[in-house]
Amino acid sequence: MKAQDSADYIHSLIEEGEHVNQDFKFEISDARKIAKSFSAFANTEGGRLLIGVKDNGKISGVSSEEEAYMAEAAANVYCTPHPEFEIIPHKVDGKTVLEVIIPESDSKPIFAIDEENRNWAYVRIADENIQATAIHLEMWKQGGMQYGVTIEFTDTEKDLLKDIENNLFSINKFAKTHNIDRRDVQKLIAKLVRFGVLDYTFVDRKFKLSL
After folding, report:
1. Count of domains in the chain?
2. Is the pTM of this model over 0.90?
3. Which candidate, 41, 135, 157, 193, has a CA 20 to 30 Å from the CA of 73?
4. Residues 59, 93: contact at Cβ < 8 Å?
5. Mean pLDDT, to the nearest integer, of 117-136?
């Protein structure tokens, strides 16, 4: 794996800092942890890992063969299904930086496998990998965002929107009050988010529903 001499390119990426589409990694010491990044990027908008770059943007460099092997293990051993990815080594100031490009997946969700062989999906929020919720999983199961489509509102939908508007909504409480299964409430929320009726945003370290 021959490294490209592309210092200007890598320095320009580093100047962007870490964001929703980019993350810096000093090294890969645990392929399982990197699998979370693969999952998050693949489940969101795609992005890149710059391996051999510290959090402060300083280039530390890596051993390209070993780090590439660990990145491949993260994707092909500790992610299911296996996400697409590309590894490009770059020579920067005499050091090697690996650019790992992870496109957005057409087969969401991509799960990362933890130490107990449990599958967890992640999403990328700003510069963090955040564990996906049951609402995310249901949205992926139903399909992508849908706009410009007419949907029918029953009393159930109206009551749900009213509770959210008044900050009174709880999935468990709503399910009990309306005598419906909790999973059916999650399906309804996912549908309303997909159709642009509700927003599902990450606020104060948790996901919140709003009109």
Report:
1. 2
2. yes
3. 135
4. yes
5. 97
